[in-house]
Automatic annotation (TrEMBL):
It comes from the Bacteria. Residues 11-32 have a biased composition (Pro residues). This is DUF4190 domain-containing protein. Keywords: Membrane, Transmembrane, Transmembrane helix. Residues 1-32 are annotated as: Disordered. The chain crosses the membrane at residues 40-57, 63-87, 99-124.
């Protein structure tokens, strides 16, 4: 009968661990290089900047440009954070702090910006007509008339895009 103090022979597999014990600790990886941490931090900041930019659209006439810039900034954020993650994996170091958050927020910013850009480009003429109408509207009644005209023109455009008559 084997005792607890007996050592297993060379070449024999170790005895199985109990499933009730916590797993054996993995060896700690060294931290990522400072350049990778800075790249991941810059990506996170750019991802946040793209989301903030999307919230600050105030002028409909310039909105398509703002959305385009937000999309470009989100794409740069994704490039920076994904490249820092892959470089850290290649170097066998820990992930840079904030890289995963940068990827997630950059992807959200890119998707949101892309959908908004498609929407602005699809309804560009209706949006410009609405913006010009609202610039000339001085009363609530005329503003409501502009809103109603915009709603009607967008619903007509959607009907035409859907193939309905």
């Amino acid at each position: 009968m084997a005792r607890l103090t007996d050592r297993p022979k060379q070449g024999t597999p170790p005895p199985p661990r109990s499933p009730f014990l916590p797993p054996a600790p993995r060896p700690q990886l060294p931290p990522a290089a400072p350049a990778l941490q800075q790249r991941a931090g810059a990506g996170l900041v750019l991802a946040l900047l793209s989301l903030i930019t999307m919230m600050l659209i105030g002028n409909l006439e310039r909105a398509v440009y703002v959305v385009g810039v937000a999309l470009a900034v989100a794409a740069v954020a994704l490039i920076l954070t994904i490249s820092s993650l892959s470089a850290a994996k290649r170097d066998r170091t820990r992930r840079p702090r904030g890289a995963v958050a940068g990827v997630v927020l950059g992807a959200i910013g890119a998707l949101f910006s892309a959908f908004a850009l498609v929407g602005f480009l699809m309804f560009w003429s209706q949006l410009m007509q609405y913006a010009h109408c609202m610039n000339g509207a001085s009363t609530v009644a005329t503003q409501n008339a502009c809103q109603q005209q915009f709603d009607n023109s967008v619903s007509t455009e959607i009907t035409l895009l859907g193939g309905g008559r």
